[in-house]
Amino acid sequence: MEDRHSRVLSGKTRLAAPVRSAWSLLNTEIPGFVWAYRFDAATGTGRPLPPTTPREDLIVDEGFVWLHLALSDARVPKFLEGFPDLPEAARATLTDRDNHVVLASDDGVLHGVFTDIERAFDYETNDIGWFRFAASERLIVTARLHPLRCVEAARLAVDRGLAIHGTVGVFAAVVTEFEKVVDALIVEMGDELDRIEDYVFETAPRDERRRLGPVRRTIVRLNRQLRASVALFRRYQRWDEPDPLPTGTVEMAETMADLLGSALQEMQGLQDRARLLHEEIDSKISSETNRHLYILSIMTAFLLPPTLVTGFFGMNTGGLPFAGEHFGTVFAFLLGGMSVWGAWWFLKRVGIL
């Protein structure tokens, strides 16, 4: 009886755990808290901070802090107003819902929106997501609406001991993970295009447009984001404005422009290849359709004369030829056959056959 009672209590505890977890997250010092790390100035290693960390402990004199927030918490905009180092433009970037690549600087703070890949817990997805960031000299705040793959990969790298020596280094780590994901997608989509090509160039033509469509959409969307990202990084690579930037921004922009530039070239190659493959599929389908129409036209030309013959003899009027003949039906069939031969001779004479 006592064991049964303990199992019941154990079951209640397991059911109540998610409720207590959600309650604890709602009562943290940091609204929308996902994770936070404090990085050592000397070693560059990150130490995780608990959700109950007070706001004042996020402002440090040595090293820097990485704070990652979930925008699903409506208290986040009000919470960000308490950071004097974040100008209004940077706070707006963190909380807006605009989904396009942005990179800007205000009052020494680099902020923007960058492309990521959404992360699902029970299946793999290639849907494009967005992470927002604002980086000052001692604090970088990143935010997202949905879980993201590359931001999570950067966090895991920090847990494994990745050394980061500046706030822009966190942004660079996320972009580097994004480039790795893009490289994997390039290989995956290249293999898929190979398989589609094998089907397209088989002896029996097949319509692979339905299969090619999702690949082309992914390529076009990623190509657009990569092109915009490379253009922004190259702009900061040639930065000559008086507005200061966080330490290492120019070097980071140069590295990221080169890194994403090579991925952009490969993606453009895939886009050209997918477009040519789509044109080849259209051409083969058009040729096959024309061939079917040609065969149908020839059959119509062959069958039209005997149809006229049978129609003529089917009028059931007086004075029809062969009406009084014993082999009249045979003569009518012979006349129909001769009309088919006449149609064939005519089509050969004019060069259609």
From TrEMBL:
UniProt protein name: Transporter
Pfam families: CorA
Species name: Pleomorphomonas diazotrophica
Gene3D superfamilies reported in the protein's UniProt record: CorA soluble domain-like, Magnesium transport protein CorA, transmembrane region
GO MF annotations, alphabetized: cobalt ion binding; cobalt ion transmembrane transporter activity; magnesium ion binding; magnesium ion transmembrane transporter activity
CDD domains: ZntB_u1
Membrane topology type: Multi-pass membrane protein
Ranges annotated as spanning the membrane: 293-315, 327-347
